Amino acid sequence: MAGCNPYWNRETWAGYLTAIALDPKNVNLLYYAAGNRGRGDIFKSADGGRTFNAAKVQLDGKPIAIEGGENASTVGPRLLVDPNNLDVLYYAARFDGLFRSTKASAEGSWSRVESLTARGDVTDVKDGKESRKNGGWGGLTWVAADASGGTTKIDDVTVSRILYVSVTGDRKTAQGTQGEGGVWRSQDGGATWTKLEGPKGSPHGQVASDGTLYLTGDGAVWKMARGGSKLENLNAPKGKQGYFAFSVDPKDPKHVVAMRHGLAPREYSYDDNNRIFRSTDGGATWTELKAKWNSAAAWWSWFGAWAHWIYFDPTQKNVVWMGDWANPWRCEDISAPVTQWTEINRGKGGSYVVGIVTPPAKKGQIVPPVYNVGADWAGFRLVSVTEPPRVHLTQSREGRFDGIADGTGVAFCESDPKFVAVVGG
């Protein structure tokens, strides 16, 4: 978005983003949830991301617990604009349950949907005492609404009649394990809930335009028609890794893409571990997609590594977006014999600089090279302030990254600056 604030959390205590939702009819209206270290909030922008206001969501007089980053930000969608009433929003808080606002996330408008009591695998028990379980995949992971499934009223407010919430894992209590893990459905706008027969939780879920529920869980792809009670395993082709990211075409309820969740070898960046599959008949049959990709960073050799998200573009036919552990990618035509993917950012996420050196400039050299080291990507040789680096300091001529992931120190030889040493682990 042109002109948006690139540091949405710079002036808040919230921390990491864990969810984002857009108003389908107003491009300037967006919401996000963020938090860290057991507290967080939901923020709203009415000017395309230039400014945001906090909703000050609370539970028992304290900010709700939002754990952004890491696993918490790879599942969803946690934040939902009700397709039948754009002033109604839902947020699936990992620890604290399902929350709803009926006033477009105005300050003080959020409250917990008390009818959904399931919490999932979010507690540990030791010596008969319960404590909050940080990390992992447990708890509420997503919320979805059936846009064409009709409406009802809750407290005189029109809401979607059919709602789904994924609760991952069973809750441990001092009295024993509670069998809460699974996908829960309400057919009365959230007044009552029933757990569906199927996997014990799910990282991603989506309702198709015809009311069919699709989701991933237990490494498989599942679906259920509106009104059903049992999720059906679609038996997508099995491999070394299970399925995590998937998407249903908003214009065609039988058009589905799903992606295995793994890391391919560096020499073969797209293989069985992270293969993408496509179905045009609602999951009855699947086609393995061929793929080529173009990265803005010459040193980058991965594609689709630990992909957490894949989505059909709602405005352009057959355009698909995918997010892996470091990059957003775009495919212009998912139906092509060989799908072409383009990395759309110019940098890499997850890194920070811990060391930097600059050798003296050579005679006639305007800008000397800069060497830096940091987290995840070891370090780089930079020769431009506008272009991404082309040389990775620990990448061999064969394209492998040898020995160092996190760089902790860098130095050059004073008598011969072309010799550079990097340390790390």
Task: Write the topology of this structure.
Elements: E1 16-22, E2 30-36, E3 39-45, E4 53-54, E5 58-59, E6 62-63, E7 79-81, E8 89-93, E9 97-101, E10 110-112, E11 123-126, E12 129-132, E13 139-145, E14 151-154, E15 157-160, E16 163-168, E17 171-173, E18 176-178, E19 182-186, E20 194-195, E21 204-207, E22 213-217, E23 220-224, E24 232-233, E25 243-248, E26 256-260, E27 276-279, E28 287-288, E29 290-294, E30 309-312, E31 320-323, E32 328-331, E33 338-343, E34 353-357, E35 370-374, E36 378-382, E37 391-392, E38 407-412, E39 420-424
Parallel strand pairs: 29-33
Antiparallel strand pairs: 1-2, 2-3, 3-4, 5-6, 7-8, 8-9, 9-10, 11-12, 13-16, 14-15, 16-19, 17-18, 19-20, 21-22, 22-23, 23-24, 25-26, 26-27, 27-28, 30-31, 31-32, 32-33, 34-35, 35-36, 36-37, 38-39
What does this structure look like?
This protein is an all-beta fold. It is built from no helices and 39 strands. It has strands spanning 16-22, 30-36, 39-45, 53-54, 58-59, 62-63, 79-81, 89-93, 97-101, 110-112, 123-126, 129-132, 139-145, 151-154, 157-160, 163-168, 171-173, 176-178, 182-186, 194-195, 204-207, 213-217, 220-224, 232-233, 243-248, 256-260, 276-279, 287-288, 290-294, 309-312, 320-323, 328-331, 338-343, 353-357, 370-374, 378-382, 391-392, 407-412, 420-424. A five-stranded mixed sheet has the order 29-33-32-31-30, with no helix packed on it. Strands 1-2-3-4 form a four-stranded antiparallel sheet, with no helix packed on it. Strands 7-8-9-10 form a four-stranded antiparallel sheet, with no helix packed on it. It starts with 15 loop residues before the first strand and ends with a strand. The model has no long low-confidence stretch (mean pLDDT 86).
